[in-house]
Write a structure and sequence with these properties.
CATH topology of the largest domain: Ribose 5-phosphate Isomerase B, Chain: A
Helix content: 40-55%
Largest sheet: 4 strands, parallel
Radius of gyration: 17 Å
CATH architecture of the largest domain: 3-Layer(aba) Sandwich
Strand order of the largest sheet: 2-1-3-4
Strand content: 5-15%
Distance between the termini: 17 Å
Number of domains: 2
CATH class of the largest domain: Alpha Beta
Structural class: alpha/beta
Number of strands: 4
Number of helices: 8
Shape: globular
């Protein structure tokens, strides 16, 4: 089994590189196609998917982008349309018992919600972040942190004197993701992502 991931930015790639070996068995291989932001992905996804039309039966394609406080239904519809234009059946559009090649997933509202879903990993990477951070009301639901999860993480890391200005997203993602434990993550969008992997690879999932 092989899974190709279509991603909007390098920080998502760094995160998946760290956590996929904790989720997938050694029988599953994976690779990444990284776009230059969400607009680049949305504008070019259909054309890039065209190049995968003749993939083997044991290949699956997963598109993962941040919701970024957009209309999630509208965003998901754009991803579904791109897949259909390229001639693919998606998990969402497949009839019962019909095989599919493409799964579209949103990180709600941003990838950083997955980090707040595993505060223990954040603390391991940046020890001045409190290990009980999730007990504070504003961090209790990692998918609904007010003002954006990226902004919240950046403020937190600056407050704790790890960075002075804009945080280096790929580096931060790599630092935190290496400590993440998938089956303790409290982010609903992360769990939905893992469920999508389960639908792709079935028994070849470790968690």
């Amino acid at each position: 089994m092989h899974v190709e991931f279509f991603l909007e930015e390098p920080s998502t790639q760094e995160t998946l590189k760290a956590i996929l070996p904790k989720i997938l068995s050694n029988d599953v291989t994976f690779d990444f196609l990284v776009f230059e932001g969400k607009d680049d992905l949305l504008n070019n996804l259909s054309a890039r998917l065209m190049g995968y039309r003749w993939i083997p039966n044991d290949w699956r394609l997963i598109v993962l982008i941040d919701e970024d406080r957009k209309d999630c239904h509208e965003l998901k519809a754009k991803l579904e349309q791109a897949a259909h234009e390229a001639g693919f059946v998606t998990k969402s559009s497949a009839a019962p018992n019909e095989s599919f090649q493409v799964i579209n997933r949103l990180a709600i509202e941003e990838l950083e919600a997955w980090f707040f879903g595993d505060v223990e990993a954040m603390h391991a990477a940046y020890p001045r972040i409190p290990e009980n951070l999730q007990s504070k009301a504003k961090y209790r639901n990692p998918d609904a942190i007010q003002g954006g999860t990226y902004e919240a993480l950046e403020r937190l890391l600056i407050q704790k004197n790890y960075y002075r200005g804009r945080i280096p997203k790929p580096t931060v993602a790599q630092n935190i993701a290496q400590h993440m434990v998938p089956n303790r993550n409290r982010s609903k969008s992360f769990r939905v992502f893992v469920e999508g992997l389960r639908a792709c690879v079935g028994e070849e999932l470790l968690v």
